[in-house]
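QA checklist item 7 of 12: single-chain prediction sanity check.
[x] sequence parsed
[x] length recorded as 349
[x] structure emitted
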Amino acid sequence: MKLSQFHFDLPKELIASEPPRWRDECRMMVLHKDTGEIEHKQFKDIVNYFGKGDMFVLNDTKVFPARLYGKKEKTGADIIVFLLRELNREQRLWDVIVEPARKIRIGNKLYFGEDESLVAEVIDNTTSRGRTLRFLYDGPYEEFKQALFSLGETPVPQWVKEKVDESDAENFQTIFAKNEGAVSAPAAGLHFSRELFNRMILADIEKTFVTIHMGIGHFRRVDVEDLSKHRMDSERIIIPQSAADDINRAHANGHKVLAVGVTVMRGLETYVTTNREVNAFDGWTNKFIFPPYQYLIPDAAVSNFHLPESTMLMAVAAFGGYKNVMEAYRVAIKEGYKFGPYGDALLML
């Protein structure tokens, strides 16, 4: 397929800059992919579409404060450093993105904090905007990490809101976040509340957790018209044996498996057997899903509404059907649904 087939005009006012007051009371569009029928519900109604023994698969990654503001040595120029992942604990090495990248070269020192107490040296170029930093800190590792994260802010995308506030530290984190490593929240998981989990228990709906540390690859601009030539950034994925067993048992007993979010949809499709079973897995995935693609694991999926030409929209369109999903997005815009990580949800059955 072509990139231009995923273009649509999205009014800026439909990008949610704040979450709903209650997590599970955002709007939820329900798309029946076999018929194209559309319903309009609230997210808490999701339990009405599943029953005893059905399995919800959720991503328990935890977002860390990945965006740092600093100064370049000598010139004092303002810079933004976006932490991607830790490369070496002992040497304090991090893979990062820097802005403006053209001014940051190997050998430069960068200073962070009002008193410039945290210093990093650029030791390598990785991509046009990517750099490897060595933080110059002599104290214990936990002390360094606390200092680093205390200077960072919650990495809510700037196209969502320009200025992050204290409430985002909680709002941009799922209630079941456990394993630190994501630079963006698994948005569909943000809608789950403790009350909704309790309702799932009453309905005998089961849940299991995988860990997929969402990177910024999902938000990178696709620069090629021919989607087969696009290359996704890799993400760390951990599917415990217990989760694989839960998912495979649900299928074996004739129950539905719901993938909560694009990260889970992608993760479940990374290491699948020919018998439509999930294997335990701990590694990296750069799987890029776009139509036509036949999902083997999820029977249903829920996701937020995504930006035009985004890889997340493409993965959703592959699941719900290109025509169905693009029509659902047209209806969403007409009906004033909110887009982005703080926005509304699309359930595909």
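[x] summary fact logged: The helical segments are 141-151, 168-171, 194-202, 241-252, 262-268, 311-320, 322-335.
[ ] second reviewer sign-off
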